[in-house]
Amino acid sequence: MADVGEVLMSVLSTIRVPKPGDRVHKDECALSFSSPESEGGLYVCMNSFLGFGSKYVDRHHSRTGQRAYFHITRTRKAKKEEDNNSGSGHPPKKKPTRLAIGIEGGFDVEQDQYEEDVKVIILPDRQEVTSDDLATMPDVVKERVSLSMAGIMTADSVSHALQVQQWDGEVRQESRHAADLKQLDNGLKIPPSGWRCEVCDLQENIWMNLTDGKVLCGRRYFDGSGGNNHALLHYQETGYPLAVKLGTITPDGADVYSYDEDDMVLDSKLPEHLSHFGIDMMTMEKASSTERTMTELEIAVNQRVGEWEVIQESGTTLRPLYGPGLTGMKNLGNSCYLNSVMQVLFTVPDFQSKYVSNIDKIIDDAPSDPTQDFKTQVAKLGYGLLSGEYSKPAPDPGDENDASEPRGDQIGIAPRMFKALVGRGHPEFSTNRQQDAQEFLLHFINMVERNCRSGLNPSEAFRFLVEERIVCQQSQKAKYTQRVDYIVQLPVPMDQATNTEELQEAERRREEGDSSAPTVRAQIPFTACMAALSEPEILTDFWSSAVQTKTTATKTTRFASFPDHLVIQIKKFTFGLDWVPKKLDVSIDVPDTLDLSALRATGQQPGEELLPEVAPPPLMTPDVEVKGILGSHGNEEDDSLYSPLLSPVLDDSTVSQLCEMGFPLEACRKAVYYTGNTGIDAATNWIMSHMDDPDFSAPLVLPGCSSGAGTTPTESLSEEHLATIVSMGFSRDQATKALRATSNVLDRAVDWIFSHLDDLESMDVSEGGRSAAESEGGRDPPPGPRVRDGPGKYELFAFISHMGTSTMCGHYVCHIKKDQQWVIFNDQKVCASEKPPKDLGYLYFYRRVAE
Hints:
The chain is an alpha+beta fold. The termini are far apart.
């Protein structure tokens, strides 16, 4: 074997000293959950600074040729007796006053808990070099290797840097606009709930402009989720800089964004600015000096979240479980929402087969930096949960001689890399604030969709088609639309409680000051929730193309397909009249089995007439020049591109108003045309009812012509541009649509395609669905979202529960049925459930019953 000094000299050029900005992964393996505390320790590549456990370091060496690795092993120090009062979830001696880590007023970063042993390992012979060995080596070797070792030791690990950044992400500066913010005296008062974007009707990610009270949706995020940018467009049009996110307002503050400063900011006059629009909760005093603020409550939860008393099955001795599929997940600070969702998802066979069954191939195909690869990190998480390798009892952090009953904690896995990757670029999931589990589920499904445009897509297990049938009550003609969805949202009809008398009596006693009044939970039948979903909705301001005026209509929602796995959300979270976010305290008798067959959509009925899509011809004027509808695409020799009709005169002011709302120009033109120039209200209603149409943004095509004005014929599209967009994972049809909508300009087409993902997906479904295939005699459907279908009978296999007053605080746990036994997953604790609280869940997961 060659002398170790000579070997080090031969690899010296591959050994780097970490520089500022280098990502040093010294706490976690890039391909597994091995750490310096694991058996075998952690090997940090001294060139790329990626960390690898003993199982994967040889693989990295063989793939890259890298030979020098910094080896770190840690062993836990025995706790001093005086430190025991800070174990077992008890608060530390120094009370934190700020939701931050490692800074003044925040949580202390635990130091000196481990004894570390470090050395350099040279592969493949695993020759060892310690600091003492370096002293006898040539200066050039000693200096370079010593500097690299010291740099790795002193560098902040990626996980620590992210942890501090995420926790202290709430330090915001006062906006320069806050002190003298202009507010319009328009008499506008904002209700405490039921907000919708005034432009697109979106109900999530809603912001109120603090100058004029406009309620609009927020930015579209990098992954296609979020809003439709209408709040941003409003700022660009008006210059009104500050907006507050509705749903984040508490007595302690709110999320305020400055579009001018392009950052989250503080508004010291926020109570005054909110009260201008009728929101007076910011001026409320706390009920008593002992009542804790939301921040104090969150800190308390984070300090004691590991204790069994905070979950619903408190007071019961639960039996810890270990083994494959029974692995706990560490809470990284309000990450219980992520833990619960991922535990359930990896119970679904589609996710297991996609990411775990072929993990070896995924790892073999991983890029040079697997920490930034979505498929690799999801597979790593899935394998960590299902393999059982990390499902082992955790060492007791307290007195090792304590013979008390075991706490049930596991070593478990800490999903740091996964959380950082899926949260990157997202204003909520990139922080350590508590989040809504339902929003995270949709966000993750969205990411799976983006990363599975070819090959097996596990989110198909949840995807289904919804059919909406609108019937004009005056003409009795109907309109059918379909959309893709992943979650069934059930309203909670509080007026249907079966214990109304008990609730009223308890409320009466509380109002009289009776401190012994019992807490009574409203009992809501599950059938009442389903009825609220399935019963027809009355539309009082519907513009009917049949009668060419506003009238009343009914809208009925049904399942056009039934997914393999059905997710039901109980809409518990709301806002009180005082604008305080709250959760409805209800008990719902959610069934173990569910038969939705009666809610199957039937489509157009025999003899039923459909609402006409084309309105009577719009107004014409005699002085309009007769010319080809296609304008510049026509010529004197080709009359086929001309029309005997006069060009329509569209109401430019209505078109402009719709465009200012953020709708595509061609959609606005069609809205005005098809409503016969009857005004902004009719055109807006047309847009709202046609937003899911596949050709919503396509150019206006008039009767008697083959394409619309301004359309770029397919044959003139750049093949290079088409190939570029197709290489991004989109179909050729989608690329063609984007280029045609943007006059064959590649940059604009890419922007267009990412801002119309929902339109494109609905286009794929409608073109590739059953009706298209039947109507075109078996034409092969274009690639796009596939929808599975089958019987509508289901059985409950999991549910996620939330404890706390709102989604912005509290704690999530999940219960999963495994081998006919309910198991509770409470972060690192995994136990057999004795009394699963199925009536108190928030998200319910059903799987199809095989017939």
